[in-house]
Amino acid sequence: MARKRLDPSIFNLPVEKMRAGYYSDTYFNRARDILDSDGYHPVVRMQVFQRNAAVVGGIDEAIAILKLCSSDWSRLRVRALYDGDPVEPYETVLTIEGPYEVFAHLETPYLGVLSRRTRIATNARAIVQAANGKTVLFFPARFDHHLVQTGDGYAAYMSGALGVSTDANAEWWGARGMGTVPHALIAAYGGDTVLATKKFAEYSPPDVHVIALVDFENDCVRTSVEVARELGTRLWGVRLDTSGTLVDRSIWHQMGTFKPTGVNPHLVWNVRRALDAEGFDFVRIIVSGGFDPERIAVFEREGVPVDAYAVGSAFFAGSGRYDFTADIVALERDGVWTECHKVGRPERPNARLELVT
Fold first, then answer.
1. For residue 127, is it within any domain?
2. pLDDT of 170
3. Out of 58, 83, 100, 144, which residue is the most buried by the measure of CB atoms under 10 Å away?
4. What tens digit of pLDDT does each residue of 202-255 get?
């Protein structure tokens, strides 16, 4: 089956500003202007790569920038991998052939989206793999600028994350954001988690999963059972989000041989056993609060009964590790390609690249 790329129109690019070089490093704009002023129109092959094993993201967005914001897309020939493809260090992910002045001004924005989305996609794949088949929820929107939500959400989705927290996160694949009963709603109802969850269920569409945050009073076992008793099968799950500086009430008598703070394996087991004892084995347990691949892997090795991991800032880890570089590696004259590149940056052909139409 042929793989599909996202339509360029979905990205809502500021086309005129990008064409004008508004988002580009000034020296690329000047290079374009110099070539135009000199009447020199070299046909080049540009090669794009980064230096680490990764899951590539931002490919379709980079292609959209080239299609919509170059001075003449019809004169370019682009080959590329697909979003979600694993790549090795220095593996070429994209090549561009054509008159350099046609796309010189776009190097900054297309490298930027590749770097950003690849970091998210790579971290997401690591988190998903650590979760060992459990659902991973992409919940970092509050930790970054709102304008990055859509592309970041798509990068995580392409890497296996199954839920996102905002509609913007889900826009590019036609889904909607999901979430839990927030602490703020519980506080607005006087700290009554049961009442807040009941109201959430009452005024939410029937297809919305009702997930109760149960740590408001630092008593996750009692609160989980009380909410389950009130909502029955309408309760889809409970989310444990105990602060890393607190010890849940159910842990107090167990302390002494393990780190008791935050959402720990003992707390999850306490909630699971309490729910099961009252016949609420259908209620899922979602955990959140500082989870990353290493911590998730520990929970999975120990067989902790978690149904889903809600992960936040770990999706943004490793800033700067996936910096993309673009190099001219060859010039074309009279139909003949001649090697031309910076020392140490030779052409690295990649048979996995596919022609972009």
1. no
2. 85
3. 58
4. 999 998 999 999 999 999 999 999 999 999 999 999 999 999 999 999 999 999
Domain assignment present for residue 1? The answer is: no
Apex 272 CA angle, 227 and 205, nearest 5: 40
Q: 126 lies in a domain?
A: no
What pTM was computed for the model?
Answer: 0.91
DSSP per residue over 201-232, as a string? HHHS-TTS-EEEE--TTS-HHHHHHHHHHHHG
Tell me how far apart the 2 most distant CA atoms of the chain are, in Å.
82
> Does residue 304 share a domain with residue 170?
yes
- Of 174, 135, 152, 146, the closest CA to residue 310 belongs to 135
Q: What is the DSSP letter of 155?
A: H
306-327: per-residue pLDDT in tens?
Answer: 999 999 888 888 766 799 999 9
pLDDT, one tens digit per residue, over 325-356 is 999 999 999 999 999 999 999 999 999 999 99
Mean pLDDT of the chain: 94
Per-residue pLDDT at 301 exceeds 90: yes
Are 204 and 288 within one domain?
A: yes
Cα gap 353→187, rounded to integer Å: 53
pLDDT digits (tens, 9 = 90+) for 123-170: 999 999 999 999 999 888 888 888 888 988 888 888 887 788 888 888
Residues 13 and 47 occupy one common structural domain: yes
257 is a domain residue: yes
Instruction: Report d(CA 241, CA 178) in Å as an integer.
Output: 17
Terminal alpha carbon distance of the chain: 17
Which residues span the domain enclosing 228? 133-316
CATH of the domain at 19: 3.20.140.10
Does one domain contain both 101 and 157? Answer: no
The tokens of 344 are what?
Answer: 């140490």
With residue 78 as reference, give the H or E element that holds it: strand 77-80
- 169 shares a domain with 63: no
Same domain, 148 and 193: yes
Q: Are 191 and 218 in contact (CB under 8 A)?
A: no
Nearest to 312 by CA among 287, 290, 282, 343: 290
Decide: helix, strand or coil at residue 185.
helix
